[in-house]
Design goal:
CATH superfamily of the largest domain: Gcn5-related N-acetyltransferase (GNAT)
Low-confidence stretches: none
Order of helices and strands: EHEEEEEHEHEHEHHHHHHHHH
CATH topology of the largest domain: Aminopeptidase
Structural class: alpha+beta
CATH class of the largest domain: Alpha Beta
Radius of gyration: 23 Å
Strand order of the largest sheet: 1-4-5-6-7-9-8
Number of strands: 9
């Protein structure tokens, strides 16, 4: 469906109020750094899908020559509405002579922070304790903890996108820059690194505690060190975060789908069919023998080449095999990171 963006009109207020309430606990006012703002009284943009409103952005000019994005909501998500609103807001700010587009969001908004970081925004600062202060001074309705992810709501994350006349459109990134990863609150760091490691919160929290990293290579080097210093339970969690080799394609992540070569496989190829059957049997034997899932850095190899690798792994002792599997999770992450930086 095509997304069309237009000005926010007085006739949109009732719909906009309902949209904001659905995403903000039934309240339209926004608490921000000691102020309570009414987004319905601000200028803004509405995104439409097939002629129906599906997203709202509201903005406010600030004394530093910037434009603040006060609210951004898309409903339904997943149709490019948020991206279209953010890009159009940036274009409006640029045309109006503003030097930066910026916003604040709460530290528990992990998906939102990811959205902004991968659309060119950078971490400006973390206002530690700002939500606690807003809760006590202007908006006591702010919950103490995010009910969905359990993250305590304490800080405001300020993100910004500088605006230059030479830029014709805002930048896009497939993965946050290292400086932002170094400075993000721990929960956001873990959320971002899940794309590389498929999860494993114990490992990722331990890795985040080792920040800052000088560069991507240092991050991977430290990942090896941290992983092998973990207790066995956490090392097994790291390995188990990855899907089985030969798992149903609709159950794996986008990265794993590409790595395991599902798109290039033919369901009618006899060798491939046989490889899937053998892998199902070998995975079961392997997991009974070692107590964790078989993981290997596939590196583009077809499943027919993976079968003998599992057979060889079954001859290892458990500690050696766990060490190899942990190493391969880091090799996979390094390869993913390199691809995302391209």
């Amino acid at each position: 469906m095509a997304v069309a963006v237009r000005d926010f009109l007085a006739a949109d207020r009732e719909w906009a109020a309902d949209l904001i309430k659905r995403h903000s606990g039934g309240i339209t006012d926004v608490a921000r750094l000691g102020e309570l703002l009414d987004p319905l009284a601000l200028d803004g943009l509405v995104a439409e899908l097939d002629g129906q409103p599906a997203g709202l952005a509201t903005v406010s000019e600030t004394k530093d020559g910037g434009m603040e994005l006060v609210t951004l909501h898309a409903d339904p998500p997943g149709h490019g509405v948020g991206s279209a609103l953010l890009e159009t807001t940036w274009q409006v700010a640029r045309a109006s002579g503003h030097r930066r587009l910026w916003l604040v969001t709460t530290n528990d908004n992990l998906d939102g922070i990811h959205f902004y970081l991968t659309r060119g925004m950078r971490l400006a600062t973390v206002h530690e304790g700002a939500v606690d202060r807003d809760r006590s001074s202007v908006k006591p309705e702010i919950p103490e903890r995010n009910p969905d992810n359990g993250v305590p709501i304490r800080d405001l994350i300020e993100l910004e996108l500088p605006i230059s006349e030479d830029d014709l459109e805002p930048p896009r990134r497939r993965f946050p820059v290292l400086d932002d990863l170094n400075r993000l609150p721990l929960a956001s760091f873990v959320h971002e690194l899940q794309r590389l490691f498929e999860g494993a919160p114990q490992f990722l929290e331990s890795l985040g505690a080792e920040r800052p990293f000088a560069d991507d290579e240092a991050l991977i080097d430290v990942a090896f060190e941290v992983a092998h210093e973990l207790p066995e339970e956490a090392r097994v969690e790291l390995v188990e975060a990855h899907p089985r080799i030969g798992a149903a394609p609709d159950t794996v992540s986008t990265a794993s789908y590409a790595e395991q070569g599902y798109a290039s496989e033919s369901p009618d190829d006899a060798q491939t069919v046989r490889a899937y059957e053998e892998l199902a049997m070998l995975n079961e034997i392997y997991e009974r023998a070692f107590g964790f899932r078989y993981v290997v850095f596939v590196a583009g190899r077809p499943k027919t080449e993976i079968v003998p690798l599992v057979e060889r792994a079954l001859r290892n002792d458990r500690e050696a095999e766990l060490r190899r599997a942990v190493d391969d999770t880091i090799y996979i992450a390094a390869d993913r990171l390199a691809n995302l930086r391209q």
